[in-house]
């Protein structure tokens, strides 16, 4: 709470350096990447700040059919190279638990031949020829009952994400009309308790900065994290901190009273990192490219790229424009994954496409224990290099391959020096990947 008030440049600089050091110690130089996939903008709620709210008569509504979901995933997995998604749903009877569970299965079942030379896209240099597939599906959807969450768990969900939006109850009640489902503050607040009871042990918390005082929201988030840790022995897997963005025909987003400016935002993110060293922190393409460059090093572990949030937006790849009336809000950064990966590599970071932890049962308490002891870092380092090699060979442009290979050379040297006992096994996986084997991991 005290650090949230620091404004003097010297202690602030020290806090930022410490946040960066904590991130490096726990997560090394890795950044995990993912793409959001919006499946439906039908919504019965009326959140004042959201373009999908039911009273927004200018929103053009659509819910993706099975075939349309497949087409989106074919682009994401076969053309861009994503392995990890956050799938997003409005709250509506048509996109209830049955739709969510069946679309998750559809997504995980798509195996698509990696296409080379996609005309008119930045990825016209593909060299691969294998199969693309989504390997981890996180979900951002409305709070559910324990019975519904069990169905979600059985469908193979990764992280279950629900943002509280604001922890300040009077503000929450003003922004979410009482007669709507989302009007219940407590139903939302306790949804992660229900998720844990249903067996989902990777949960993602978040607030939407700009609805109320940011300092209050950070304290709310941290107390929520502490409560989960106290009650279930395990804190949140991730924390997200979206800032309110302009949305089509949504006057509330124009001049919000509690708008969080860039400098304050950086301080809030820094304090979150210092307070929860073992929680993943997600920075999204809501923020523009320059700000992302400044905020990622403050301790973020995940970011999206090649992002499209219009319903059906990925299958429309040649249409570069954002479509306000089909989107929830407007994005600040629409750069391609190839561009973002290259920039990260030039700054010395490795983009990890690893999804092994989850598939090997390294979730929940197990992953927290491994992170605390430093052991998860070892698996992650090996898997980051192998999956990065795979992505470079299948999807990257020549410039990105060149930047990426410099990072890989340094990583291999570090693995040799720090983990001699696994070096031989690692190199055997690395060489197999080079010659075309896929999806190898420790
Ligand atoms: N309908 C579900 C819900 O509200 O929890 C899940 C999907 S909702 C589309 C995902 C998140 O988008 C919300 O939790 C909210 O934080 C965020 N959001 C809504 N309007 C936004 C805006 N104008 N700018 C930035 N983020 C926004
Ligand atoms: Fe619906 Fe979620 Fe948007 Fe609220 S934030 S209107 S619940 S999609």
State the helical fraction. 40-55%
Q: How confident is the prediction overall: mean pLDDT?
A: 91
Low-pLDDT stretches: 117-127
Give the termini separation: 40 Å
Strand order of the largest sheet: 1-2-5-6-7-8-9-10
What structural class do helix, strand and pairing data support? alpha/beta
What compounds sit in this structure? S-adenosylmethionine, iron/sulfur cluster
Q: What's the shape? A: globular
**How many helices in DSSP terms?**
16
Describe the model.
The protein has 16 helices and 11 strands. It is an alpha/beta fold and 442 residues long. An 8-stranded parallel barrel has the order 1-2-5-6-7-8-9-10, surrounded by 5 helices. The longest helix is centred in the last third of the chain and has 21 residues, at 375-395. The two termini are 40 Å apart. Iron/sulfur cluster binds next to loops.
Question: Which SSEs are present, and which pair or pack?
Answer:
Elements: H1 9-27, E1 30-40, H2 66-80, E2 84-89, H3 97-109, E3 112-113, E4 131-132, E5 136-140, H4 146-154, E6 160-161, H5 169-175, H6 185-189, H7 191-197, E7 203-206, H8 214-232, E8 238-240, H9 262-275, E9 280-283, H10 289-295, E10 302-304, H11 337-346, E11 350-352, H12 356-359, H13 364-373, H14 375-395, H15 398-418, H16 420-434
Parallel strand pairs: 1-2, 1-10, 1-11, 2-5, 5-6, 6-7, 7-8, 8-9, 9-10
Antiparallel strand pairs: 3-4
Bound molecules: S-adenosylmethionine and iron/sulfur cluster.
The site of S-adenosylmethionine (SAM) has 21 residues, from loops.
């Amino acid at each position: 709470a005290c650090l949230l008030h620091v404004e003097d440049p010297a202690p602030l600089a020290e806090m930022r350096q410490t946040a960066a050091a904590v991130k490096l110690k726990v997560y090394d130089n890795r950044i995990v990447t993912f793409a959001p996939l919006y499946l439906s903008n039908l919504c019965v709620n009326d959140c004042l700040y959201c373009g999908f709210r039911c009273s927004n008569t200018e929103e053009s509504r659509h819910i993706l059919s099975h075939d349309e979901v497949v087409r989106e995933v074919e682009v994401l997995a076969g053309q861009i190279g994503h392995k990890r998604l956050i799938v997003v749903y409005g709250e509506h009877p048509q996109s209830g638990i049955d739709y969510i569970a069946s679309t998750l299965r559809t997504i995980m079942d798509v195996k698509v031949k990696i296409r080379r030379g996609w005309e008119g896209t930045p990825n016209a240099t593909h060299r691969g020829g294998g199969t693309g597939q989504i390997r981890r599906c996180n979900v951002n959807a409305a709070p559910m009952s324990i019975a519904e969450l069990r169905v979600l768990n059985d469908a193979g969900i990764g992280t279950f994400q629900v943002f509280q939006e604001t922890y300040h109850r009077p503000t929450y009640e003003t922004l979410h009309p009482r007669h709507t489902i989302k009007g219940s503050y407590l139903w939302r607040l306790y949804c992660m308790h229900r998720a844990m009871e249903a067996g989902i042990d990777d949960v993602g918390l978040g607030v939407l900065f700009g609805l109320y005082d940011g300092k209050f929201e950070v304290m709310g988030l941290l107390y929520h994290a502490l409560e989960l840790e106290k009650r279930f022995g395990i804190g949140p897997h991730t924390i997200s901190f979206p800032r309110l963005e302009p949305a089509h025909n949504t006057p509330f987003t124009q001049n919000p009273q509690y708008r969080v400016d860039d400098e304050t935002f950086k301080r809030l993110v820094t304090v979150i990192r210092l307070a929860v060293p073992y929680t993943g922190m997600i920075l999204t393409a809501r923020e523009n490219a320059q700000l992302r460059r400044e905020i990622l090093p403050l301790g973020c572990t995940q970011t999206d790229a090649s992002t499209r949030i219009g319903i059906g937006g990925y299958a429309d790849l040649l249409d570069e424009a954002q479509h306000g009336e089909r989107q929830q809000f407007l994005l600040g950064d629409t750069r391609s994954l190839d561009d973002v990966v290259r920039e990260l590599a030039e700054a010395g970071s490795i983009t990890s496409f690893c999804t092994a932890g989850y598939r090997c049962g390294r979730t929940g308490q197990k992953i927290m224990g491994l992170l605390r002891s430093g052991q998860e870092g070892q698996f992650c380092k090996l898997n980051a290099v192998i999956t990065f090699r795979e992505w470079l060979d299948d999807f990257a442009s020549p410039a990105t391959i060149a930047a990426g290979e410099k990072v890989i050379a340094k990583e291999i040297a570090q693995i040799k020096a720090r983990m001699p006992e696994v070096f031989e096994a690692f190199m055997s996986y690395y060489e197999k990947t080079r010659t075309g084997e896929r999806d190898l991991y420790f």
